[in-house]
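Need a sequence for this fold. Nothing fancy.
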């Protein structure tokens, strides 16, 4: 049967490229959330014709949802000929803005020289298309399979996934007994299995001061100077400590195999939207947004305590220093075990297609697996899909048609193993 599925996927090569191009032509840019509904309807129409039952689910009340920019998700399900597990392929349909520097039109869906070009080609409409072709080839070869298969196109992954997978997980769409195994076709390279991701703590640190006339700063208290003290302490104390941490998580690239912290933004004094001469004031507030990525060996409490210890010491040692911290987002690190059913099934597919064992990796950043684990309490989930992660979010983004074809074969074999059980021998 596997040879039959592989032949069908090979015969669908042009269709796979065309499907990817069609998906790219929906400019599902987030923010603000353009073209979500027409893209979801396009996916629904195709899968409905192939026997899937369709649900269109708007995540009302989630960040960014409005009548102009509705957060519309599509979930398609097809039942087999008997009892068995449910395998779910989840892809996000939103993409980041195109930006400058393109040599092709970002939303034209150009097919050229064995590649499909466009915003979202790699991240992750190529993966969505490959999963759809894989499932369609499997259904043609095995129409009376046990269990059920689901395919979803969800929104807002690029901004946290709260209007997409998080919303659906809260509604029970990513929990047993409805779903048993989840594959997310993120672009992690065709011979690698991504088992999870590092943790993240986003927070805003505010240093406080006292406003006064800029010609007499001694009558006030400069919040920006206080923030300078925070930055100095981070540079001399926190960053060296983070760089010394080690992990058993196989994070890629190598530089992310440590704890890291990025300073996303600093705002102090004049309001951000001001476009004239500055007023002569001592700033009474300065705000810094930090993006702290952490490892499986660390607890969220320890991560926060490292920062709070520095702030508390400064408050004790530095005259008039005062601060506030506001949590923005917290995600724990996670790592599915290599011998988990879904990882083992995809590993068999990689061995069959490429003749070698897979590489197992951890993503440096988070993706929607976090919501499936945290909200859905479903841990048999991995990311596997075509595309080179380094191309994501860049000008002239592309995905290789060969990679999509081979990844579709891997996904189809993995699907077969999950529904029918592993091969014997």
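Here you go.
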């Amino acid at each position: 049967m596997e040879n039959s599925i592989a032949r069908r996927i090979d015969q669908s090569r042009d269709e796979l490229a065309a499907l990817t191009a069609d998906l790219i032509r929906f400019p599902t840019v987030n923010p603000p959330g353009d073209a979500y509904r027409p893209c979801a309807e396009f996916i629904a129409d195709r899968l409905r014709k192939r026997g899937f039952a369709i649900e269109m689910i708007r995540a009302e009340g989630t960040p960014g949802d409005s009548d102009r920019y509705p957060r519309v998700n599509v979930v398609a399900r097809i039942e087999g000929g008997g009892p068995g597990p449910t395998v779910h392929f989840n892809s996000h349909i939103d993409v980041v803005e195109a930006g400058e520097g393109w040599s092709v039109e970002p939303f034209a869906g150009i097919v050229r020289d064995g590649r499909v070009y466009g915003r979202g080609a790699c991240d992750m409409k190529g993966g969505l298309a490959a999963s759809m072709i894989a499932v369609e080839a499997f259904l043609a070869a095995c129409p009376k399979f046990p269990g059920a298969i689901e395919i979803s196109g969800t929104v807002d992954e690029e901004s946290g996934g709260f209007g997409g997978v998080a919303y659906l997980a809260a509604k029970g769409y990513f929990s047993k007994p409805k779903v048993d195994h989840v594959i997310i076709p993120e672009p992690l390279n065709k011979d690698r299995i991504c088992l999870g991701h590092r943790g993240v703590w986003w927070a805003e640190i505010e240093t406080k001061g006292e406003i006064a006339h800029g010609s007499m700063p001694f009558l006030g208290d400069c919040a920006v100077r206080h923030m300078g003290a925070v930055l100095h302490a981070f540079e001399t104390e926190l960053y060296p400590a983070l760089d010394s941490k080690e992990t058993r998580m196989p994070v890629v690239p190598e530089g992310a195999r440590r704890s890291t912290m990025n300073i996303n933004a600093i705002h102090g004094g004049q309001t951000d939207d001001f476009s004239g001469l500055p007023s002569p004031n001592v700033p009474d507030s300065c705000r810094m947004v930090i993006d702290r990525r952490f490892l499986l060996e660390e607890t969220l409490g320890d991560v926060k305590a490292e920062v709070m210890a520095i702030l508390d010491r400064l408050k004790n040692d530095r005259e008039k220093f005062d601060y506030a911290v506001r949590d923005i987002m917290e995600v724990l690190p996670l790592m599915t075990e290599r011998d988990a059913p879904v990882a083992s099934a995809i590993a068999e597919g990689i061995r069959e297609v490429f003749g070698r064992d897979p590489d197992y990796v951890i993503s440096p950043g988070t993706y929607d697996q976090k919501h499936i684990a945290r909200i859905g309490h479903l841990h048999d989930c991995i990311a596997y899909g075509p595309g080179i992660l380094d191309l994501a979010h860049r000008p002239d983004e592309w995905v290789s048609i060969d990679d999509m074809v081979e990844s579709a074969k891997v996904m189809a074999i993995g699907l077969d193993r999950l529904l029918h059980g592993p091969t014997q021998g």
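For context: The chain has a mean pLDDT of 96.
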